[in-house]
Write a structure and sequence with these properties.
The complex is a heterodimer. By secondary structure, chain A is mainly alpha-helical. In chain A, about 75% of the residues lie in helices and about 5% in strands. Chain B has a seven-stranded mixed β-sheet, sandwiched between helices. In chain B, strands 3-4-5 form a three-stranded parallel β-sheet. A two-stranded parallel sheet of chain B has the order 1-2. Classes of the chains: A mainly alpha, B alpha/beta. Chain A: Its main location: membrane.
Chain lengths: ~290, ~400
Amino acid sequence: MSQFLLVLVSGVASGAVYGLMGLGLVIIYRATDVVNFAMASLATLGLYVAVSLRDQGVATVLGIVAAVTITVVAGLLVRETVIRPLGQGQLFSALVVTMGVSLVVENVASSIWGDEPKSFPNLVNGTVSWSGAALPVQSLVTIAVAAVAMAVVGYLFARTTLGSAMRAVAENADTARVVGLGAQRLARIAWALGLGLAALAACLYAPRSGLVPTALVAPLFRAFAGIFLGGLTSMYGAVVGGLTVGVLDNLAANYASASLRDTFVFSFTVLVLLIRPQGIFGTRTFQRV
Amino acid sequence: MRKFRRAAGTTAVLAVVALTANACAEQDSAGAGGNSSEIHIGAWLPTTGATASYGVPQKAGADAYFKMINASGGINGRKIRWTVKDNAADPQQTVQIARELVGQDKVVAIVNANGTSQAEAAFPFVLNQSKVPVLNEVGGNESWFEPPRPGLFGTQTLYEDQAAAIAAWTVQDGAKKILVVHSDPAAFVNVAKQVEPVAKKGDPSVEVDRLTVKYQTTDYTPVISKVKAAKTQAVVIILTSPEAAAFLKEAKLQGLSLPMYAYAPVAAESTVSLAKDAAEGLKAVQLVKAPSDSDPAVKEFRTAMAKYEPKQPAGFLALWGWSNAKVFAEIAKTIKGPVTADAINKAYEKATKVDTGVSPVMNFSPSNHLGTRSVQRVVVKDGVWTSEGDFYTPPKRG
């Protein structure tokens, strides 16, 4: 039982990270029709800044704030300089551009900070005993921070005027513009929010993995699996999908095979998509031909 | 008609001269790079890309050695010019670089390059077509040296022999039940498979199991659960350095305290910096002595690094580069006359008792192109890799 609890908590903590990244991807995608492949590398840039600050003696929490800020600023720069000029609805062009940006940012990080793995500090150390299992406090904090961030985003979209405006833009940017909503301003806010969530997720993930320029490729991959599982357009779907991927990944490694964890998770995702192509929470769209 | 014949004759003579000159030039390409004032050698190294964390320190270590030896007059009065080109760990790019190094730069040998698949991509052009030797490559596998290939010489104990050394060590420490935790790519599986036969040779009653883990796993919680469930007495880790660090951290978190052993890629500074106190007591085998040793040869390395490559830490990988450079220099010193590809091949085949002071003593012969099977045992003590005893040769495999 204690072993199951340990594996479950660890899976939920990993899933929370994938869920946060997935949420960021969905927010940006819904607001601007851009699948942002550069999100992970931009967040890595933020992590490197946080590590540099830590090396200068700055507190970890301030480093995390700096990481989020840097990621958001870098992301907005990318949007304004290379994504916005493409125009609205250029899904595939934007996809390729964000992939290119991702490679450039990884190379920049590599040339500034090198490729030697660096450690990223835990927010908290130690364990908590529960039902005979020694649960890492860092995992519990990861789950709590991710839950709070998700709740705030949920509140923002459900209960505030800004959230309603962003939902309106997501539904139809042209109509939103007609009724006086500044689509570009809202798009910038969506990018800032999405990248901020990604940076937060990165700060929660990095203590476990260490930091190299490509450190966040694996969680981004799983976040994508999560959002397709949950439904590309659904924020709830991104969170539930990410959590499902994280938990299944760990359960498969523990009870099936540690080498087939990915195979298990992605087979499950494919199976779900065969039954519900729009994902668990996604909305099926129809196009007139 | 006569004019035509004369013109045709002149053309034929010119053609013969041109062809002869070209043939001479081709024949000479393998001997190029050696003149009276310098020995021009080259290498492909990943100084950018996924494995740059290996290539950059390796280059710095070798650079420090070559700068030091050039400052003291070079080899028999000849300075070493080491031209390094970044292949970003890409085999296709390596082939292009090999063509540049051999065809344009006219290097006399490829020395201290990096990467198994990258080198294999370049072998047809470099070794077979151009007859330029490839020496002291970081990487490689058994097929490179069994049977020996003309022009290919190695200085790195094979990963399989490293596994054999670990197996002997665990048995020597009294473990009766050993679990080998390894990544799933074939290169890791092959190394992991070498543990059992050697362990059983040491003690037939030893049980050895293997636990395969997905490559680049970061969440080791379920893996450690499995290790605990296996009720083993020792764990052998055949993972990358960041994976090993994640494994060790999770093991400490879950209170798993078993003797743990690893092969050379884990015996890196990054494992300690990532795992911190969770790495304490980790045992591993290495290709060189620990860079913190008080040994005079290691001290010389640290001094040269501080002088010539002050920005690069004097760690294991830099010491690999240093050691490989020194092996080349020690063998090149024995060459009397022009340093050509052929002369280098002959010198390597005759080279015995090549002692760099930092790596095992190398012995080559016409039938043995791999200089050593020995390793150095190292242990993490107070957060630093420390050598244990002298170089050790593991029992024969198979």
